[in-house]
Amino acid sequence: MQEFVITILDASNYTLILVLVALGLAIIFGLMNVINMAHGELLMLGAYVLLTVQQLGGSFWLGLIAAPIVVGLVGLVIEELVIRWVYRRFLDTILATWGLSLVIKQAITLYFGPASHSVDVPLTGTVNVLGAQYPAYRLFIMAVSIVAVLVTLRLFFKTRFGLAARGVIANRDMAACLGINTRRLDRYTFAYGAALAGLAGAVMSPLISLDPQMGLGFLVPAFLAVLIGGLGSLMGPVAGSLAVGATDNLTATLYSPVWAQLVVFVMAIVVIRIFPRGLVARRGRES
Amino acid sequence: MKRGRVITTEDALSVLALIVFLALPLGADDYALGEYAKFFAYGLLAASLAFVWGHCGLLCLGQAVFFGIGGYAMSIVTLGKIPGAPTLLSSWLGLVLAVAVPALFANLLGRFLFYGQGLRGAFFGIVTLAVAVIAERLAVNWPYLGGLNGLMNVPPPNLGLNAGGHEIFEPLELYFTMLGLAALGVLLLSALARSRYGVALKALRDNETRAQFLGFDTAAYKTTAFSIGAGIAGLAGALFVTQFGFASPKLIGFGLSAEALIWVAVGGRAVLIAAFLGAFAVRSVEGILSEALGAYWLLALGVLFILTVLVFPRGLIGEIVHQIDRRRGVDTA
Predict the structure, then answer these.
(1) d(Cα B45, Cα B106) in Å, to the nearest integer?
(2) Is residue B276 part of a domain?
(3) Number of domains chain A contains
(4) CA contacts within 13 A on the Cβ side of A176
(5) Which residue, A105, A184, A268, B293, could crosslink B297 as a Cys pair with Cβ 3.0–4.6 Å?
(6) How close, in Å, is residue B103 to chain A by CA atoms?
(7) pLDDT in tens, A24-37
(8) Structural domain tally of chain B?
(9) Does B137 touch chain A (CB under 8 A)?
């Protein structure tokens, strides 16, 4: 029973982080038609912002707040300098953002060195969950992710900004004709997606080792989650992350961590092939 | 617009490049020759990606997978590691398998991905990226392939039917062998790109739905083109390992795929020889500048890559070729 609870909690932990990353990707993809290959590096930036704040003597919590803000601002700059030039060239967005990921990775390597860093866990206690002792910090991660996802969903479904954004996702030209400033929306959306990635990286950082190459390990599963879930609605990436996260963790626990990623990727490719529009498909929209 | 049998700028550039490469040994020492010969393998990988991406519109983010499979196939044969046939050591067999195995794998992958509802554009790209990550993981975790260290002491190409013959080891000999094989590969791809078959590929790249309505089985076309590209990439991988001496997981994964993509984008995605030269140029400059610039080199390359994509989507060499073609009034679209 205890092992079972811990397995479930670990799986939820990973899944919720994945949801944060995938949601950012999906918003950027859905709204702007931009495939952001640099999303993993934005996540890495978030972790390094936290590391820097700590090195400068700030507290972990200050770093956790600073990370999404700084990465969001970086997102704004990236959008202005690179992304907006390739809006109408869909496949080129992959190349441009891939180049960005290379540049960010290399800049971090130059500044922090290629070696890995670690961040201390700020909450060291454990909490009794249904009879199992579980690290408090992992529960905190889950809480942060759930709040961030709920805020995002609320932002997109309950505010004027969200209404405009969903309008642009459904039909960009029509939304523009109706007076929505798509340019401004693009800018904010990219920054918001980047901030989500930054938050994910920062909140994850005590559990993993930080190195300049860490982004790819999150990017590919998050992309697969987005594709599995489908791009039609914001629930798609959430469902996709669940599928990827659960499969990954269960395979790792029941079989071996080495093969977990292989199983997940192969499964994902098969699912994407069978349901190219995703599991949570919305009818009437060409992707 | 002139059509038909005109000498395109691409042809002229190819001939010019060949002449320069034939003359290069005059002013290069053995070390440089060895490096150039390796660049030919990279160039061929770039050309195969340009064929798949530039000519057929299949943005493959894992082209190095086929390069790696080719490299491993060659190594397995020449190291006598074929299960049940340890006496088979033929470089010729290695070469055949290095082309056939990746082509077959790409064919199966293509059949799986392109038929039916089919994956298009970015989805295909991301799936190939995932395939590259899978392949690298498999290579690292498979003891038969030497794990993280890879397969070491791969012998140089041997002209004997089952090894034992003349070994191509001397730098100048190796240089011309590699140049010859790489040129053959590029020639084959460019002949294909110009054939009726190649024109159909361009048509489906520009508008797949329309090509379908004109009666082309686009899934079959894409699968075949993908397989041919993979076969050539496998050949490049085989050429590489026979010079480099070992096949490692680095050859099969994401890193080299990304590098190849940069070479092709910077050189020119729609012009095979431009992609080939792109790889050669980036690699040569890297040899010179990476010492002076150190880690800043990769940063500079990344910035160059982004700028090329933003400003010259045809690539630096590709843009020049395009401008000359336009002035001459030759239609190469």
Answers:
(1) 15
(2) yes
(3) 1
(4) 9
(5) B293
(6) 20
(7) 898 888 778 888 99
(8) 1
(9) yes
